[in-house]
Amino acid sequence: MNKAVERELLVPETPEEVWHSLAEPAWLGEDASIELEPAGEVQVGERSGFVEEAEEPSRLVFWWSAPDEEASRVELDLEETDDGTLVRVTESRPLEILTLRGRDLALELDLAGGQGPVASAAAGGAALVMG
Amino acid sequence: MPAADPADAVFNALADGTRRDLFALLGRRGEASATDLARELPVTRQAVQKHLGLLADAGLVAARRSGREVLYHPTPGPMSEALEWMAEVGHQWDDRLAALDRQLARGRTSA
Predict the structure, then answer these.
(1) Which of B82, B96, B107 sits opposite A3 (nearest CB)?
(2) Nearest neighbour of A9 by CB, restricted to B79, B90, B100
(3) Hey, which residues does A72 pair with through a beta bridge?
(4) pLDDT per residue as tens digits for the range B27-41
(5) Do B104 and A17 touch (CB under 8 A)?
(6) Which of A4, A32, A131, B19 has the highest Cβ tally under 10 A?
(7) ipTM of the complex
């Protein structure tokens, strides 16, 4: 189970044109700014984060989080097609997958009479299997 | 959760875009009737009813009676928390990609 969300958009522009539009980040939300370079700042409203990867004009990866939220990872892939560009976005929470899955398992083990430390060890093992 | 593989039931239930929207909406509402939900989605009450049935089969929603109404709510638990996050984030990206498209379209007319 991979906790990720994927969406696509097809536009008639070239990947270069789309890339330049990404640099005008109003589309990301209000009060948005993003530096399209590795370790660049990402700020969208109360969310903040950083750019992990910026490969003009085909791939942008960044991490962001709102206060008191776990960080999630956003991948934007721009793929050239005959008609323009396919923009594919994937947002995932790699960190949270483990804790959620761990809680599932902890619950199951508790029902079976298991103890806390046993549950968390089992959850760690399951996380590896899932990875 | 039903028997067999609950993850399969959950993912089948959420494989459909309308059901994801429905589930996200119910998550924001907390509790609602099929009629209330149909008012906010571009589908009939009957379709909403059918989708709620599938979500209930997967253990994602539960129903209770309130007078003459049946009210649905998302069931708590890590699995539905995760799926609620997926539905919510999916919605946000629909909006952002629509905004990106509009942003690009401004250049289209002047080109």
Answers:
(1) B82
(2) B100
(3) A64
(4) 888 999 999 999 999
(5) yes
(6) B19
(7) 0.71
